[in-house]
Amino acid sequence: MRNLCKPRSKGYSLRMITPDVLVGTLNPWTGKPFGREIKLGLNTRSHAEAIRLRDVRLGQIRQLESEALASLNKKNVGKIIDLSPENARFWREERALTNDTTSLEVLDSYLSDKLNEADQAGFEAEATAFYKIVRGGLHLEEALELYLEERSEGNPHGFAPLARTTTLDLRTSIKYLVAFLGTEAPLLSDVNKNNAFKFRTEYLPVTIGLRQGTVKKHLTLLRGLWAWAIADKHFLKNRRGGPAINPWIVDTTGTPKQKRLARGDEDVRTAFTSEQVSLLLSDCPGHGTRQGDLLRLLLVTGCRVDEIGSLLLDNVEEDASRFRIVHGKTDNAIRTIPIVEAAQDLLLKRLQQAEILQLDIPQNQRRLFPEWPLKPQTGKVNSASQWFTRYRRNILGKSTDGKLTLHSFRHTWRTIARRAGVAEDRIYELGGWEGEKNTSWRYDHGLAIEQLTEVQRQIWNALRNGGYLEEF
To answer: Which of 8, 186, 214, 330 is deepest in the core (most CB within 10 A)?
Structure first.
């Protein structure tokens, strides 16, 4: 029992370590100076009454501590209660530990008197923020860090860990939200249905200028954070003590929205034509350049550029027959990619060149494309995308802006696979997409590597017959 003790055949007593600032000051209950430990008899053998009296005494001791700090020109201002967030969190914990209605009323009455004194002293805003924290409020930044910690890899709560990019996106969401609220150190409880509505319908799409798809992404991330705060941590409650309403749950009724924002003809992504691929590859002749090797592997594997750009040598077979994607944006992205015989020479030369370039780097850190630097925060090869934008404009013209990117090689691979008659489930498995699931999906453990290799040969032949491999 916190701060309570009960010797046999005697009543309850409060026992606690004396706050440092009170040591040597007058103990109003004994008329003597406080020592290193506080011992106060509560004159009751009733457990419920002992809890009530304990809470009252703790409140009084806390106030004595605040006044002592004030006299030392530390945290307090004047003789009012310490209005710091740390003190507010202390009182929040005390309220949470008080399970007796009468004791809780006494505690709240005491706090109310002290906050009224703060109001009269001119600290109305600080007292209001203090009260919000005491009643369960948590600063947005504080909640974010706690949430990210509990959603980290290997967390003890069993929560699914957040990907690095998701973590960065959520930080951006909170940054936007803090700027929108416009108050210093806003709390979780400051967000309600009304301002959440304005945030998603006016601030993000109009003031910031985000596309609807990006707005929805931010809403999804915020909805997850609030769901954790409400259901898992009980930080947010309604007036009756039940779970609060999640302000980011959007009512889907109303004017129908476009599934995709209308884009002009100049801003619709598409796949490459065979002529465009030939032009791009002809300016990167032969094998052995970071640009040409990257483009060719993207074309014949359907991989994402970051999957190839961050690939470790340890995950590539020595004979270049296949490589393994060991992490990605989804579980489906973790997969094995076979390389057809006609493309293995390219991968072998790339392996040899990468080894030579990284002799001074530990084996388990060597990458297939060390020439493309990874962005530390995200693990992405942004430099490759930036290079390709300039290169594509130079070769194919600015008219391809908004239509063709490095990711278009993935579009091209998928398009050719469908035209070759490859079954959708096999495209999903090789490409790392999540396909449709039925009642038997959990019993299906995928195709054998020989079957996947045969599918890659089928796609390779379709690329060759379509003229995409003229400059390979």
So the answer is: 186
